[in-house]
Structure formats: C-alpha cells, structure tokens
Amino acid sequence: MKLQEAENIPDQENKYRRTIRDVVALCALAAVWVRYDRKLLAHSLVEVVLNALPLDFVLLQLRGLQGAPDVLDARLPGRPAWDNQKEKIAALLAPSSTELPHNEARSIPNPFGSGAVRIMRVAIGLDGEEGVVVLGTQRTDFPTEEDRLLLSMALNQAAIVLQRQRTEEAMRVAAAKLQLAVRGSNIGIWEIDMPDGILRNAHIDYMNVWEQLGYDRPLAPADFDTAIALIHPDDSTHTELSIGAYLSAASKNLEFEHRVRCKDGSYRWMLTRGVAIRNSAGIPIRLVGSSVDITDRKRAEEALRKSENRFRDYFELGLVGMAITSPTKGCLEVNEQLCRLLGYTREELLQKDWAELTHPDDLAADVAQFNRVMAGEIDGYTLDKRFIRKGGQFIDVTISVNCMRRVDGSCDSFLALVQDVTERTQAQEALRVAKGRLDSAMRGSNIGIWEVDMPDGNFQTGRVRHINFWEHLGYSAAEIALDVPTSLDFAHPDDRQHTQDAF
C-alpha cells in the first residue's frame, strides 16, 4: 500500500503543478477580456472553460447591457455550433429549470447524446446578475476540488470584466442623459484638471459651454490661457483671483459672475460655481463646477434698475406730491414736495396714515374708493379732497391713486399723486361769487347780455345763451329761444333782415 502511494506522488505533483499553472493563467484573463465586447468574451470564456476542465459540453448565457438581448454561446459534443439544439439549450439555461440547482452536480440523461452525464449549473456574478453557465461531462467524479477552483477562477475573472462593462455602460448612459439634459438648458459643466495643483498649468474639459457660445466643441481639453482669453477683459482678473482665493482656502465657496465672449463677438453673463477635489496633502488637483447663463437675468436687473432710477428721479422731481402707502393706509415713502404741501418732515409723515391727514368731511368718499380697490373692483381712482396741514389749515388737493398688485392679485402698495389745487379752488370760488354779483346787478338793471356759441363758425347754426334778456320781455323760461333762427323770429318784422345782416 505504501508502495502504491509512493508511486502516485509524481502524478499528484504533476496534477498540482498543472492546476497552479492553470490558476496563474486564469488570473491574467481579466486583462485580456477587458478589451472584448460581450459576444467575444462569451466565446472566449467557453473556450477557456473547455481547456481548463475535461468537459463534454458548455452552455453559456450572458445578460445583455441596457436592454440589449442576452448573449448565448455553446459547445456540444462533436460540433462547435448548436444549430437545432436551441430549445434544449434554452431549457437548461432557463432560470425556471428545476432539474439543475445552482452549484450542485447531478446525473441526468445526456440531453445531447446517449448515456448519462454529470451536469452542473453555475451563476456568473452576484446572484447570477451577469449570466449563467451549464457544464456537462461523463466523468463520474465531476466536479473535483480542482474543477471547482479552476471554474470559480474563470467565472470570477469573467464577472469582474462583465461588471466593469455594466458599470461603464451605466455611466455612459448616465453621461449621455446628463449631456442631453444639459444641452437643452443654459447650464455648462466644466472640469479643471490640475495634477500639480497649479491653476495656470491646468487643462479644462467642458460640456455645453462651447456650444452655448456658438463655438464648435474642441476634441482636446482647453488650457488655462485659452479659457481665460474668453473672459471679458474687465472680469478676467476678478475671475482668476476668485478661483485662486478658493483654491488657497482663503474663501469657503467658489461663486462669482463674469462675462464670456461668444463666437460672434458678443458677451454673455455667467454665474459660475465650483468645488475642489484635493489630494491627501490638501492640495487641489481637480475643480468641478457649472456655469449658468444669467444674461436674461442681468438684462432684467439692468432694466429694473433703470426703471427704478427713472421712478426715483420722477418721485423726487417735485412737480407734484407723491407717496407710497400700504394697504393699512400707512405712509411707506413720501417725496419732498408732499412734505412741503403738508408742512411735515419726511420722518413725521412716515409715522402717519393718510386717513388722519384727511378732512373728516372728505374721509368717507376716499375710504369708499379705497375699499373698492382692495376688493379688486378697480385698480385706482381720482378725487378732490382736503388735507389737514401740520398747523391745522386745510388745503384743497386732487389725488390720483393707483394700486400695485402682487402676482396673486392682492394689493401690495399704493402710489398716490397729490396736486395742490387750493389756488384753483379759491379762484373758482371767487369767480362764482363775482358771477353771482354780476348776475344780481344785471337783473336789477335794464341791460340784457347774450352769447352765441358757434363751434362750426356758422352763425345760423349757433346756440344762444341770455342773461336778463327774455325776462325784460315777459317771457317764461319755457318760451326762451335757444337757437339763432328762433331768436330772430322775436325781432320786429321790419328789423329782422337788418339784424341778420348786421350779424
């Protein structure tokens, strides 16, 4: 017995050496397969398994990438192709096959010939996410420990490459989706690579940056000088200092605005933000970020600034009194002219509301219109009213009020224009008194006054207005003539033509 064991030692040593040699060879497969597509890898894997293990057939199914169909390969006894055996092969590879539990060999009738075979189904990758292989042989000792070792080595190497391919494909799809989404937006993505940590030695890769500016996308990353040359001359120093301050940790965040030159020579405003990736020594080696086109926002801001300046200039021009008031009637802002009209300082007026400045007899009419605005019935109103000056005097004014509404339609504030009409009111009152006195004087005399209104310049179509005229003749108000032809009918027949000719 000992002699037989001694005789078997050289065979065992050769077997171990061959196994070790095969293991070493299998370890190098990943480096070769990394260049293969899934179809070529499947073919190579089948060949490797057949060469490493004495098998009668190998059936292989690899999962497709991103919706692509699965890859199938097989080697059957006596022929490399599988032709009319597809249904049998598919049944053995199917996940629902109950005849073949994973990693356990059993004897079954040979599906591709006579007699019995030892067959085993093995998953590739975690839980078979990369595929499955079915192995068959007439060897009764299959699988030995060496078989399992070599098989696991081959399948693990394949799984490493297949999982890498799946990850790369997922990243490629994600990058394509990101690029597609970015190209439909006003956002540019950039990455600054600084292996030595020096910004001026960096190379920059862009996504949807060149395209936004009207340039063709370059094949190679841009260098720092090329990138900085696109910045507006007034912004280039600020841009470089902002990035430098962030990389040196002098500032916590990288965020700045600048202008970039387009291919047609115009400039677009960009809002740039970024974050640094540092090595173990804290040196920044990569800077990743985005640039958002904010040109429209800048234009809107400039238009708003000009509008606000124009409003402020008009507000302070002093032609009329102006106030911005709140929905609670308080004064939010007043100009100097309104302060002069009411005799208060700006600070004093800002502590008051317009209700307490209004004459009590005029408050109800003002509040009624104000409530209509608050209810959304109207957006503004104009009325004559009296304000109370600081000394208690009353002044006559005409106010025009307009509501400034929020997006939802609610009232944000009011703009009120106040025109002092005290002198006009006094003049109108004086004229009214004078006319009354004149009318009284005329009615006590034998003098009549008349007026002919001729908008078209034709005397015959004119309208006549009289003062103390018909009354002298004893006519009633209903009998008073208002047109010229009727008025002439009241003249003596011998005087009518003479009167008309005189006119």
Give an overview in words:
The protein has 503 residues and is an alpha+beta fold. It has helices at residues 2-27, 29-33, 38-52, 86-93, 145-183, 224-229, 233-247, 295-315, 336-342, 346-349, 354-357, 360-374, 422-443, 470-473, 484-489, 496-502, and strands at 57-62, 71-75, 106-109, 116-124, 131-137, 187-193, 203-207, 222-223, 254-261, 267-278, 284-293, 321-325, 331-334, 380-388, 394-405, 411-420, 449-453, 463-467. Strands 8-7-6-11-10-9 form a six-stranded antiparallel β-sheet, sandwiched between helices. The chain has a five-stranded antiparallel β-sheet with strand order 2-1-5-4-3, with helices on both faces. It is elongated and about 160 Å long. It starts with a helix and ends with a helix. The model is unreliable at 1-7 (pLDDT under 50).
